[in-house]
Amino acid sequence: MNAAVAQQAAGGQPEAELSSGQAAAQAPDRRAGASSQPTPAALPAQPMTGRMLRALFPGKFEAVWKNRRTLIIGADADGRLKGYSDGKYDAGRWEISGNKLCISFAVWTGGDRKCGEVYRGDGWFMGLLNKKGEAHLRFRKR
Asked: Which one, of 68, 58, 142, lies nearest residue 103 by Cα?
């Protein structure tokens, strides 16, 4: 069974086949000390659309913030967010604005609204990229 067929059988969408140059650009860096954080070259060229994001939300998610903090997040249909990390709770809001996901938490973002495009890859959704193109937020459905 080829990889695309296996992925479809597992409920996923087949990914486009890559040239050897693209595959090399997306291969993980296994050097000692190399970050497991996807590089800009590893992110898909196109962000998810607003329609794709609306199909993903509301829901419950496992998330990682800045590769340091693991969170459990509940995104309610009315735009409320509930998050738990290291025994601490925070609340906030979420919305889809155009093709961007916007989130805010009272404590974790200081009430600031953070918006950004979301990319899908390697089993995670990645968003809120920094200036280097690294994802501040990685999340997946629970």
From this structure: 58
Rounded Cα distance between 44 and 34, Å, is 20
**Structure confidence at residue 45 (pLDDT):** 65
User: Token pair of 32, please?
Assistant: 């000692």
The H or E element spanning position 102 is strand 100-105
Give the tens place of pLDDT for each residue, 88-101.
999 999 999 999 99
Domains in the chain, ordered, with CATH? Answer: 49-142 (2.40.128)
- β pairing state of 59-65 and 135-141: antiparallel
Cis upstream peptide for 14 (omega within 30°): no
Q: What is the dihedral of CA 95, 117, 92, 79, to 10 degrees?
A: 20
Alpha-carbon span 74 to 89, nearest angstrom: 11
